[in-house]
């Protein structure tokens, strides 16, 4: 190797070269686009789920309750507070943030003599505009946590690299072509591996539990499924929900809407996982090991064996009361038995849940119509408390011209499910945009396929609401469209057109201008000149239901108080304005679904227990 | 390009005559080269070609006697704390301490380690903290400009605080390190403190 | 009166020049490092700062040694012609200078020894060894100069050079000049002979315990030292200066040469340094002496 | 001459990292050297036992601040082996490129430290400048200058940004164009030879006996590199050479470092040319529910200092049961250094220490 | 040697009693043996070519009330197959008053590892020339790396108890 004494002097050439130093802070250097600097948090999209706090390796993040914010389903009023005396700027919180509201910016200057200033609640330029400055007003020499640059996002969440799995494990379904032909259950259900994989997606933020009306311990039962212990899971479910087979199929899944994963990805299939737990466990009785509490000697009558009735019976039975459940139908389930078509909720699943509740010692009086077979007044005398869970059992009608030619939804559904199936037409028009309307439509479609195999048939729906406004769930709409049901949103029925012989020819519709008025009340307005004639030989009205209180004698009925929205008014114990009469379910709440009915039932059951123990003063 | 005149008043002769001490301290910050923690990794870039802290008169020096700026670069283990205190006490006054990154503020990454102290300001006074893990060279430069401001305003008085509360500092130090092998730096103050405590207690 | 003024003027100017050169040295090395470096005023700022700091003394000898060394340096400065101005030129010659030049390191050694810092004592011992290394060569070089010019007065040497041209290009003195060039970094304590301070090895050696005003004095002494080394070289081999400006330019020129060496070479180990000094410069100095002796006799 | 006890570090300009050596000196000669580590001891492995698998990622890289990337790799590799996670091919290439960049950066840091130690400020400044250019690349890729937290089990945390390959190339060309400068001023400098030649000499037998790895071993003529014997990432996809020297002294070691740097740069170019398209990340399980079955693994790689290993034990929980890093500096700093310093001059303490490539945080952990 | 692990396994089985081996024989081989045999085994392995002591580690098995010592060996020389192989030699010692024999005689770099284990696990290595503290400054009742040492509690009890110098209450 040639060493030299003189060669080093070549370096002199740099004596007069331009230095490569960056004259910071007089010459600035922008940090990289992905720089992991200080946090910002979009308070609008932040759900306060606390995943960031959970994953932080340094416990630098604490969830702080913000009094100004209101908690709502799927959103708590907590927001992360970050301690820069702990933070290591690893960005794990960014990658786990389900809404992607937490971001790292490219700001990184905070120099202060007071260590307390290093703890702060990150907000962003919209929430705290006074702390964020546009580029021309921003100076690094003033930069700190209260002098930051606007629109300076650095390391942000990327779904492709997120720590959570945004996509669901696909639920195996019967393909539309096949399921259209019969009433088989089209959701096949997860198998063990799929269920575990899906359960593994849960981040355990418990936002869903807040959103669930019945406050099921969702995280816990999903964790049990993840650990391959469906029995444990079912036990957890039964703490709050005695009808998992039903709920696992037809629950409105408020939890999934609240699921933090749903913000940028697909919500966790909480409903299907519940169904998995209920379906996997073969024997409820031995698995759950539940026993009625010590007998109290009190008797409670429950009118209606729907979700509310079943639940209240279950909870009361567990407290040791004797319960008798009355229902006009031949089996349990109430609306669940008549409404949801068999392809969504087979009778066997309902019976499974009902049978388990029966096995706890609840007496069921089916085929017994209160007011006819048993008198309500007698029940009031015979029982220590009465629970009304009668639900909405009557269909509304549009009352347009010739409406009497139409079929009512509930009658159609009930007969198809537990009675003799209808003879349907070839061109069916369904009026309505809710879930019931879609059930009707899809059921009609199946009947068409059964009754006119190979022939050209069609099912059309007409709804006042436009896409997006439709009350039916997205999932239902998607499935219905897969099955080739034609939608005509934003059209209102004007007249049922009949021919000379009185047979239905079709439906005349008007274009809808708006469905709700300025106050947000339901008050449809129409374009009078835009009309459409829709051909059809059968029209089914599915625009809503209403309750039937005819079993209550008039003098009692007059004592019942109702809310503005025509609901039974109950107190915090679930008691109506009549002493010892409690109520729950569709006749009380506005959600009108099974899980809210369970929630009502839970309140009422506790109320009844307290009432029977003589704790509460009557209303 | 930001105007140079904004922060640099190095060539302001008037100021030099008014308070030569402050001006001297400001533009001749000699940092003690002590690799206390991982933050030291950003010091070499700071003092070498890319950023060149010498432009601001900031250079690393070999011994605490020659230094007036102490950069606590990152976490401080118990064993290091002893040397930090020693070095700090050897530095001539006025002296400035700057804590680097999360760790000295509240434990940082090592908040649950059994061998690192969590709050540096319990043991020696700290005049400024820089956020980051670890702070970038740019942040060090901005920190220097902030320190100038503090010196100007007479707020970088950690060393005075150390004198004032020496007994408390010494007590905290001894709680962690046991009996210290060197005599107290300000014995009088300690006595004063003790007598004051006696009166109070 | 004039003398007092001259003494003040020269010593202050020497100090300023020394400090300026320290600043320039930092700037020049910075440029070779591809950076801007500190402002030229940085050494002055440092001095102001050091004086505004508290300082810990390690005993009387610690203070005395410092003063001793500083005054020693000032006295040497006064003996050196500053481009025609030479306050104490008449009262001594090269030998006096050679003798006085030993005072400064001795003072530092005394002072640093008092601090009881092992790094300081190692630094002092290195300084002594290094001095031992170059002192002989320096003596031989001065001898050859004195023999050639037949005078011990530095003023006379400068005078002669102004008329006859630089000693460096006088044929008999070329070899001695070369030898002087080689030992210059050692006299000035710059790389490759920076091992006395060697911050990365022995924590700046003798300076280790200096803080505050002591460091300021030490730096001033260092500034004088640089000035002395350069001015001796300029006076003896580069023809001094007929006026101050000319002299300073020459000083700067010589300085730049050594500064470049400083920038591109690392440190020697002390025994390597001594071996080097005893080998090449000493050999050259000896040859130079013989040449001069042969040519003049 | 009287014997003197001298503390080299922890507060010392020549000390790279918070480390201390107690020297017993006689004049300028070292009679006995005792390494005194522990100034950076944070109980890393204990901390890892208290953090979940994912939470350990930001932690592991902090074991060695000079070169955090190989630590990340080790942990990612160990977790991948324990949990059976596959890594996509593109991610393997990205990892190799990333690690080689880290190696160049780390070597430049080492060059800074070494040159600075010898009082070679010029080269030190240059090296640090060039390292900063590499840090700029890292910043763009990972969002962090020093701690990148980029290698994840299942691949890498983010793919290359747009045009990044070109920027790697141009940065490396910039650095490469200065290699003649480095050579002229430093590697071919006679004084460097004088200072480094024969200093801290280790025979091959001694090196093997005391557990030397990496360039300390390669400087004694042993052609051993884990990237060759046990290829990981994409090192078996390209051709490259192991630079070797035979003298076993500081001079050889620094030359090996230089050659390795150049080899790494060549390797990066080759890897860039072959970089496959596709995914760079295979999603890991939900961090809150991530449990790894009971098992143990010992993985190793060639960091810029030599064999880096990780012994990782899982007891089936959501946290490691035991992690133990086998760091190259450990043997170098605590065994070889003490031996190599004997009978050397004080002037060479830093010289030997840095040529052995010792980093204190790696020892203390 | 095609599969050095296999060969070694057979050799070890024939030479030592009551050992169990497992592993793929290519990259990793775990050998478990009685604690008395460890030192002999180490010197045997060193002679066989596994002359690089990569690591001495220890796992605290709180449930079994033992400390598991792990020696990880690999080879400097040898062919590629052999260099690939890491041998994990394991033995267990009781948790109370743990003692073991030093390996410093066999491997030059064993010393600091043993010092570390002495300090962090409280294992006494008999015959070790210098079993002085390595990392720690403070003294701990339980060696800090033992599973029953709770660092978070320790931090709370020690570091968090130290008051701030000025009377600031906000900081935690």
Task: Describe the structure in your own words.
The complex is a heteropentamer of chains A (619), B (201), C (297), D (365) and E (172). Chain B has 201 residues and is an alpha/beta fold. Chain B has 9 helices and 7 strands; from the N terminus they run H-H-E-H-E-E-E-H-E-H-E-E-H-H-H-H. Chain B has one domain (9-164): Rossmann fold (3-Layer(aba) Sandwich). Chain B has helices spanning 13-18, 20-27, 43-47, 78-90, 103-106, 137-153, 158-164, 166-177, 187-200; strands at 30-32, 59-61, 69-72, 76-77, 96-100, 116-117, 128-130. Chain C has one domain (2-296). In chain C, helix 2 packs antiparallel against helix 10 and helix 3 (60-79) packs parallel to helix 10 (213-237). The longest helix of chain C has 32 residues, at 118-149. Chain C is globular. Chain D is of the alpha+beta class. Chain D has a single domain, classed as Cytochrome-c3 Hydrogenase, chain B (Orthogonal Bundle). Helix content of chain D is 47%, strand content 14%. Chain D is built from 15 helices and 8 strands. Chain D has helices spanning 44-49, 56-60, 68-83, 89-117, 121-142, 164-176, 179-187, 190-196, 204-209, 214-218, 226-229, 250-274, 328-341, 349-355, 360-364; strands at 3-8, 20-26, 29-36, 151-152, 155-156, 295-303, 306-314, 320-326. In chain D, strand 4 and strand 5 (155-156) form a beta hairpin. Chain E has 172 residues and is an alpha/beta fold. In chain E, 27% of the residues lie in helices and 24% in strands. In chain E, a hairpin with a 5-residue loop joins strand 1 (20-22) and strand 2. Chain E is elongated and about 70 Å long. The relative contact order of chain E is 0.13. The mean pLDDT of chain E is 81. Chain A binds chain D through residues 1-5, 7-8, 10-11, 20, 31-36, 51, 54-57, 88-92, 95-96, 104, 154-155, 158, 160-161, 163-165, 200-204, 223, 226, and chain D through 51, 54-59, 62, 122, 129, 136, 139-144, 147, 149, 157-158, 161, 181, 184-186, 188-193, 281, 283-289.
């Amino acid at each position: 190797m040639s060493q030299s004494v003189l060669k080093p002097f070549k370096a002199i050439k740099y004596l007069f070269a331009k230095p490569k130093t960056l004259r910071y802070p007089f010459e600035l250097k922008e940090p990289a686009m992905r720089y992991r600097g200080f946090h910002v948090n979009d308070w609008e999209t932040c759900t306060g789920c606390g995943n960031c706090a959970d994953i932080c390796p340094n416990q630098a993040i604490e969830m702080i309750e913000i009094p100004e914010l209101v908690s709502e389903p799927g959103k708590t009023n907590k927001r992360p507070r970050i301690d820069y005396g702990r933070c290591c700027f690893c960005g794990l919180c960014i990658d786990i943030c389900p809404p992607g509201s937490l971001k790292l910016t490219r700001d990184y200057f905070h120099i202060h003599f007071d260590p307390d200033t290093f703890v702060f609640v990150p907000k962003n330029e919209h929430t705290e505009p006074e702390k964020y400055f546009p580029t021309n007003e921003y100076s690094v020499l003033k930069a700190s946590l209260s002098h930051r640059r606007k629109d300076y996002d650095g390391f942000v969440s990327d779904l492709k690299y997120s720590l959570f799995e945004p996509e669901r494990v696909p639920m195996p379904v019967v393909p539309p072509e096949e399921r259209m032909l019969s009433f088989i259950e089209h959701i096949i259900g997860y198998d063990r591996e799929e269920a575990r994989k899906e359960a593994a997606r849960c981040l355990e933020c418990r936002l869903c539990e807040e959103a669930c009306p019945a406050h099921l311990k969702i995280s816990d039962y999903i964790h049990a499924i993840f650990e391959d212990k469906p029995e444990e899971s079912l036990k957890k479910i039964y703490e709050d929900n005695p009808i998992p087979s039903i709920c696992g199929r037809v629950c409105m899944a408020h939890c999934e809407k609240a699921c933090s994963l749903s913000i940028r990805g697909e919500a966790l299939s909480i409903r299907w996982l519940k169904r998995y737990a209920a379906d996997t466990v073969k024997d409820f009785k031995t698995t759950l090991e539940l026993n009625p509490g010590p007998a109290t000697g009190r008797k409670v009558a429950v009118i209606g064996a729907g979700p509310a009735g079943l639940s209240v019976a279950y909870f009361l039975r567990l407290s040791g009361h004797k319960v008798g459940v009355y229902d006009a139908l031949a089996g349990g389930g109430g609306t669940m038995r008549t409404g949801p078509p068999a392809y969504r909720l087979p009778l066997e699943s309902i019976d499974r849940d009902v049978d388990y509740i029966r096995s706890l010692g609840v007496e069921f009086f089916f085929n017994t119509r209160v007011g006819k077979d048993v008198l309500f007044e007698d029940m009031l005398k015979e029982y220590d408390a009465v629970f009304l869970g009668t639900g909405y059992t009557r269909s509304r009608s549009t009352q347009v011209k010739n409406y009497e030619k139409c079929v009512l939804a509930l009658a159609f559904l009930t007969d198809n499910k537990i009675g003799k199936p209808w003879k349907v037409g070839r061109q069916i028009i369904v009026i309505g945009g809710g879930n019931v309307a879609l059930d009707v439509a899809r059921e009609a479609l199946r009947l068409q396929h059964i009754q006119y195999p190979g022939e050209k048939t069609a099912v059309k729906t007409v709804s006042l609401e436009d896409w997006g406004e439709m009350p039916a769930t997205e999932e239902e709409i998607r499935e219905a469209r897969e099955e080739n049901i034609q939608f005509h949103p934003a059209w209102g029925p004007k007249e049922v057109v009949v021919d000379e012989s009185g047979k239905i020819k079709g439906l005349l519709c008007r274009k809808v201008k708006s469905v709700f008025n300025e106050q947000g009340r339901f008050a449809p307005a129409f374009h009078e000149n835009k009309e459409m004639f829709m051909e059809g030989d059968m029209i089914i009205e599915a625009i809503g239901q209403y309750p039937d209180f005819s079993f209550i004698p008039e003098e009692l009925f007059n004592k019942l108080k109702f809310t503005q929205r025509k609901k039974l008014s109950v107190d915090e114990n679930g008691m109506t304005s009549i002493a010892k009469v409690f109520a729950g379910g569709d006749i009380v709440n506005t959600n009108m679904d099974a899980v809210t009915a369970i929630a009502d039932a839970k309140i009422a059951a506790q109320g009844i227990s307290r009432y029977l123990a003589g704790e509460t003063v009557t209303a | 390009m930001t105007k140079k005149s904004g922060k640099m008043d190095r060539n302001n002769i008037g100021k030099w005559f008014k308070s030569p001490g402050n001006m001297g301290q400001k533009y001749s910050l000699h940092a003690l080269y002590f690799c206390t923690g991982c933050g030291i990794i950003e010091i070499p870039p700071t003092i070498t070609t890319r950023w060149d802290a010498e432009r601001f008169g900031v250079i690393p020096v070999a011994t605490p006697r020659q230094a007036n700026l102490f950069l606590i670069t990152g976490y401080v283990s118990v064993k290091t704390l002893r040397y930090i205190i020693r070095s700090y006490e050897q530095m001539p006054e006025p002296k400035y301490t700057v804590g680097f990154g999360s760790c000295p503020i509240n434990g940082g990454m090592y908040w649950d380690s059994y061998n690192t102290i969590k709050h540096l300001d319990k043991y020696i006074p700290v005049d400024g903290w820089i956020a980051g893990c670890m702070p970038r060279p740019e942040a060090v430069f901005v920190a220097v400009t902030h320190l100038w401001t503090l010196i100007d305003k007479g707020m970088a008085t950690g060393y005075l605080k150390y004198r004032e509360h020496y007994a408390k500092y010494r007590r905290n130090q001894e709680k962690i390190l046991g009996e210290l092998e060197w005599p107290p730096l300000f014995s009088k103050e300690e006595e004063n403190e003790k007598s004051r405590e006696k009166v109070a207690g | 009166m004039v003398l007092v003024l001259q003494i003040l003027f020269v010593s202050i100017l020497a100090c300023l020049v020394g400090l300026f050169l320290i600043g320039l040295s930092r700037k020049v090395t910075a440029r070779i490092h591809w950076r801007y470096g500190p402002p030229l005023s940085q050494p002055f700022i440092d001095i102001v700062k050091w004086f505004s700091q508290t300082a810990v003394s390690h005993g009387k000898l610690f203070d005395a040694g410092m003063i001793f060394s500083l005054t020693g340096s000032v006295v040497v400065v006064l003996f050196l012609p500053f481009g025609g101005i030479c306050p104490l030129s008449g009262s001594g010659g090269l030998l006096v200078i050679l003798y006085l030049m030993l005072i400064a390191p001795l003072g530092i050694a005394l002072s640093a020894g008092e601090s009881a810092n092992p790094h300081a004592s190692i630094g002092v011992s290195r300084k002594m060894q290094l001095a031992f290394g170059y002192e002989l060569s320096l003596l031989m070089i001065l001898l050859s100069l004195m023999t050639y010019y037949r005078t011990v007065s530095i003023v006379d040497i400068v005078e002669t050079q102004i008329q006859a041209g630089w000693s460096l290009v006088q044929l008999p003195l070329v070899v001695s000049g070369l030898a002087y060039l080689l030992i210059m970094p050692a006299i000035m304590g710059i790389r490759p002979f920076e091992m006395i301070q060697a911050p990365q090895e022995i924590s700046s050696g003798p300076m280790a315990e200096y803080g505050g005003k002591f460091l300021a004095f030490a730096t001033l002494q260092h500034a004088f030292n640089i000035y002395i080394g350069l001015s001796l070289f300029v006076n003896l081999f580069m023809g001094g200066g007929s006026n101050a400006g000319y002299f300073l330019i020459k000083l700067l020129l010589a300085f730049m040469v050594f500064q470049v060496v400083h920038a591109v070479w690392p440190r020697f180990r002390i025994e390597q340094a001594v071996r080097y000094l005893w080998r090449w410069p000493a050999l050259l100095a000896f040859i130079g002496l013989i040449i001069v002796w042969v040519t003049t006799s | 001459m009287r014997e003197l006890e001298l503390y080299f570090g922890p507060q010392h300009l020549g000390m790279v990292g918070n480390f201390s050596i107690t020297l017993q000196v006689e004049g300028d000669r070292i009679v006995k050297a005792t390494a005194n580590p522990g100034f950076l001891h944070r109980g890393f492995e204990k901390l890892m036992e208290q953090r979940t698998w994912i939470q350990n990622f930001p932690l592991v890289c902090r074991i060695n601040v000079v070169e955090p990337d190989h630590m990340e790799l080790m942990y990612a590799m160990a977790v991948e082996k324990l949990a059976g996670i596959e890594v996509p091919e593109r991610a393997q290439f990205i990892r190799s490129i990333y690690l080689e960049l880290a190696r160049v950066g780390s070597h430049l840091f080492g060059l800074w430290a070494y040159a600075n130690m010898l009082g070679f400020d010029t080269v030190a400044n240059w090296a640090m400048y060039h390292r900063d250019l590499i840090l700029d690349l890292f910043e763009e890729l990972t969002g962090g200058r020093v701690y990148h937290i980029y290698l994840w089990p299942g691949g890498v945390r983010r793919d290359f940004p747009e045009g990044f390959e070109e920027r790697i190339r141009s940065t490396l060309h910039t650095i490469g164009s200065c290699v003649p400068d480095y050579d002229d001023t430093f590697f071919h400098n006679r004084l460097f030879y004088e200072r480094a030649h024969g200093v801290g000499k280790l025979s091959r037998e001694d090196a093997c006996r005391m557990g030397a790895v990496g360039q300390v071993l390669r400087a004694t003529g042993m052609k051993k590199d884990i990237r060759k014997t046990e290829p990981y990432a994409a090192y078996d996809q390209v051709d490259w050479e192991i630079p070797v020297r035979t003298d076993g002294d500081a001079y050889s070691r620094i030359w090996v470092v230089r050659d390795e740097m150049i080899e790494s740069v060549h390797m990066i170019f080759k890897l860039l040319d072959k970089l496959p398209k596709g995914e760079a990340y295979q999603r890991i399980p939900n961090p809150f529910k991530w449990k790894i079955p009971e098992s143990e693994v010992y993985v190793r790689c060639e960091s810029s200092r030599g064999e880096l290993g990780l012994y990782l034990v899982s007891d089936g929980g959501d946290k490691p049961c035991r992690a133990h890093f086998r760091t190259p500096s450990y043997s170098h700093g605590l065994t070889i250094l003490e031996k190599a310093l004997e009978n050397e001059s004080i002037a060479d303490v830093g010289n030997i220490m840095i040529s052995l490539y010792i980093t204190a945080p790696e020892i203390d952990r | 040697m095609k599969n050095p692990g296999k060969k070694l396994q057979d050799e070890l089985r024939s030479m030592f009693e009551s050992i169990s081996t497992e592993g793929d024989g290519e990259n990793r081989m775990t050998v478990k043996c009685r604690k008395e045999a460890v030192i002999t085994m180490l010197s045997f392995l060193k002679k066989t070519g596994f002359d690089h002591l990569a690591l001495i580690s220890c796992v605290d098995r709180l449930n079994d009330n033992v400390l598991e010592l792990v020696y990880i060996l690999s080879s400097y020389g040898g062919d590629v197959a052999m260099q690939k192989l890491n041998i994990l030699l394991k033995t267990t010692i009781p948790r109370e008053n743990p003692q073991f024999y030093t390996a410093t005689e066999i491997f030059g770099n064993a010393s600091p590892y043993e010092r570390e284990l002495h300090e962090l696990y409280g294992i006494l290595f008999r015959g070790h020339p210098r079993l002085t503290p390595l990392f720690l400054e403070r003294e701990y009742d339980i060696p800090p790396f033992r599973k029953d040492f709770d660092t978070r509690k320790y931090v709370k009890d020690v570091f968090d108890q130290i008051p701030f110098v000025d009377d600031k209450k906000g900081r935690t």
